[in-house]
TrEMBL record:
Primary localization: cytoplasm
Protein name: Elongation factor P
Biological source species: Caulobacter vibrioides
GO-annotated cellular components: cytosol
Similarity-based family: Belongs to the elongation factor P family.
Biological role stated in the UniProt entry: Involved in peptide bond synthesis. Stimulates efficient translation and peptide-bond synthesis on native or reconstituted 70S ribosomes in vitro. Probably functions indirectly by altering the affinity of the ribosome for aminoacyl-tRNA, thus increasing their reactivity as acceptors for peptidyl transferase.
InterPro entries the record matches: Elong-fact-P_C (IPR015365), NA-bd_OB-fold (IPR012340), Rib_uL2_dom2 (IPR014722), Transl_elong_fac_P/YeiP (IPR020599), Transl_elong_KOW-like (IPR013185), Transl_elong_P/YeiP_cen (IPR001059), Transl_elong_P/YeiP_CS (IPR013852), Transl_elongation_fac_P (IPR011768)
NCBIfam families, alphabetized: efp, PRK00529.1
Molecular function terms, GO-annotated: translation elongation factor activity
Length: 188
């Protein structure tokens, strides 16, 4: 199925010369002069080679047929990351290459959208936000207002982020899975 290059997003799968590529990042560039272009950074699914392509935004790209379904994350081990289809109870194992930056945010029992091609996992789409606990941060300074000053903190998954000064260790917070940034204090 042909689609405009500008409509591709992270996680989309394209077919170029009979090989499948997963889009790692897509950026639409609109120069002051000239034709707008779409910069795609992709990874070849078969061997993990990364490529970068530039298309005019109106160019058509062949999008591969991919099955996107909800799967429940079970656990990870030496073989990879194990997921279960809640409808058929079939289990799939995704490799480290497929999971990539999403690995720290996976929690047991979490529902994710797993993209498969011929029953092989090729991409993952996490929920937009996840609740994690702050395990380490600087103590708050008395009299410091809730201005735009943020302090460094370490989350329970080991990822470093920045939080407002009033957040202390042990507080549960909502984090964006896209970039690991603080959203708000979790409502319990």
């Amino acid at each position: 199925m042909k689609v405009a290059a500008s409509s591709l997003r992270k996680g989309s799968v394209v077919d170029m010369d009979g090989k499948l590529y997963v889009v790692l990042s897509a950026e639409n560039i609109h120069p002051g002069k000239g034709t707008p272009v779409t910069q795609l950074n992709m990874r070849r699914i078969s061997d993990g080679v990364k490529v970068s392509e530039r298309y005019r935004t109106t160019e058509q790209v062949e999008r591969a047929f991919v099955d996107d379904r909800n799967h429940t994350f079970l656990y990870s081990d030496g073989d990879g990351y194990h997921f279960m289809n809640p409808e058929s109870y079939d289990q799939l194992v995704a490799t480290e290459d497929v999971i990539g930056d999403a690995a720290p945010y996976l929690q047991e029992g979490m529902t994710v959208i797993l993209s498969t091609h011929n029953d092989v996992p090729i991409a993952i789409d996490l929920p937009r936000t996840v609740v994690l606990e702050i395990v380490d941060t600087e103590p708050s300074v008395k009299g410091q207002t809730a201005s735009s000053s943020y302090k460094p903190a370490v989350l329970s998954n080991g990822v470093k982020t920045t939080v407002p000064p009033y957040i202390t260790a042990g507080t549960k917070v909502v984090i964006l899975t896209e970039d690991g940034s603080y959203v708000e204090r979790a409502k319990e």
